[in-house]
């Protein structure tokens, strides 16, 4: 087991030694600053003021850093698909393309061990990215707007909740690991594609195509009766952490569905990878 963690440390070292690994972190930080600046436009603030005051709440109390942070996370979640797909699509395919994987497989280590280390690396990166998105948005938002009540507003999910700062902060922080769990579906699909005999760019593009198509089809009114078939219907369950009361049963069902889908993707990738010939 100690050898496994040594290999995991080496894989993480390789991942974070690549400059492209940090593209997601830099892009999200820049985007967060832009979104927060846009929220300072008087016309934008006026619409928020009307929304809050028409509901009987004080604008200055609930137009706070944590409220803006949640809106930033909402606006950047889809972009997270790109960077999780980029890293997970590279993790195997890039080493095959460079020829370094053949040298790895010459050593007395099973293919399953190699894939387990690489997939766990992708999982850790996914959670690190989700936490970075949420925490950096919270820090930047609080520095700009200060503390205050948490106004949760997501009309597409019919989510409208008000919290004081303390309970709101707990809910917000709890939603970040849930977001990471949701993003694992993108990670798992990209990992599966990376195990196939394709270029790293093709693995990333195939993943983005699959999930964007899933989002588009789920949004069409013709498929309303079967929207539970689409993965994106279940990945958005991380919003439910912010509902009051907490819909435990719905969240357990959604994450059980996603766990099954993720396990299927990974299993398919493992079967494909283990059947490939790297000798020639």
UniProtKB/TrEMBL annotation:
The portions of this protein that span the membrane are 21-42, 62-86, 119-143, 169-193, 200-220, 255-274
Q: Which UniProt keywords apply?
A: Membrane, Transmembrane, Transmembrane helix
State the protein's name: ABC transporter permease
